[in-house]
Amino acid sequence: MDNLDLQLIPLIYLLFAFPIIGGFLSLKWKMASVISSLADVVISIYLLFYPNVEGFFLIDEISKVFLIMNSSITFITMLYSQKYIRDGIVKERWYYFLFMLYSDALYGVITLNNLGLIWASLEASTALTVIIVAYEKGEVTMEATWRYAVIVSMGVSIAFVSIILFYYGLHTLTLTSMIGRGTNSPLIVAASLLGILGFGTKAGIFPGYTWLPDAHTEAPATVSSSFSAVLVPAAAVVVF
C-alpha cells in the first residue's frame, strides 16, 4: 500500500463513521442525519478523483460510483424524511437511526475486499431494514415485511454456504485473491451457483425476486428509493 492509499484510509473510515455518529445523534436531533449524510457525499466525491485503493478495502471505479449513489440517495432521503416521516411502528427518531446504520452497511458491501465481510454487511442491511419496511404498520404491510425478511434471509443463508465452499476450495475470501483464479472443479462450480442464487435473492434475480413487489409497495417511499437505487444494484455487483 503506497503513501496515497495511507492518506485515503482515514477518509474511508470517516465514510463509515459519519452514518454511525449521525444515527446516534438523530435519536435527539433528526437533522443530524442530513448533516452526516452530506458529509459522506463530500467524501465520496473527493474519493472519485483519486486512484483506486486495494487492501482491506477495495475501492475501484465501480465502488466509487456506488459510494456517490449511496451517499447522495441517503442525503436526499434524509432531507425529504424531515417532513415526510412521522411516528410509525417505532418512534420517528429510531427510523433515522436505523436508516443511517443501514446506509453504513451498504458502504461495507461496496468497499470491503472480503466476501465474508460483504456477506455480513448484506445480512446487516436486512436486519436493519425489517423494521423500517414495516414502518407504516398495517396488516398488509406486516405481511409484506414478513415475506421480505424470510425470503431474503433464506437467500443470504444460501450465500453463506457458498462462502464456506469458496473458502474450502480457494483458501481465501479476499476478492482480489479470488478474482482470476478460475477453476472448473465441482466444488467451485457449486459455490458459484449457490452464490448466484443466494446473493441473487438480495439482488432480486429469479427465482428470489418475489420480495421486491411486497417491500417496494409497502415500505415508506424513502426506503423504497434506497432499495431501488443502491441496495439491489449493490447486491447485483456482488453477484457479478
Fold and architecture overview:
The chain has 240 residues and is mostly helical. It is 77% helix and 2% strand. The chain has ten helices and two strands, in the order ααββαααααααα. The protein has helices at 3-26, 31-48, 61-84, 92-111, 115-133, 139-170, 175-178, 186-202, 211-218, 221-239, and strands at residues 53-54, 58-59. The protein has a two-stranded antiparallel sheet with strand order 1-2. The longest helix has 32 residues, at 139-170. The radius of gyration is 18 Å and the shape is flat.
Mean pLDDT: 88
How many individual helices?
10
Please trace the helix and strand order, writing H or E for each element.
Answer: HHEEHHHHHHHH
Q: Structural class of the secondary structure composition?
A: mainly alpha
Rg = 18 Å
How far apart are the termini?
26 Å
Largest sheet: 2 strands, antiparallel
Q: Would you count the extended β strands for me? A: 2
| Shape category | flat
Into which percent range does the helicity of residues fall? over 70%
Spans with pLDDT under 50 lasting ≥5 residues? none
Strand order of the largest sheet: 1-2
Write the layout of secondary structure elements.
Layout (H helix, E strand, L loop, with lengths): L2 H24 L4 H18 L4 E2 L3 E2 L1 H24 L7 H20 L3 H19 L5 H32 L4 H4 L7 H17 L8 H8 L2 H19 L1
Antiparallel strand pairs: 1-2
Helix pairs in contact: 1-2, 1-4, 2-3, 3-4, 3-10, 4-5, 4-10, 5-6, 5-10, 6-8, 6-9, 8-10
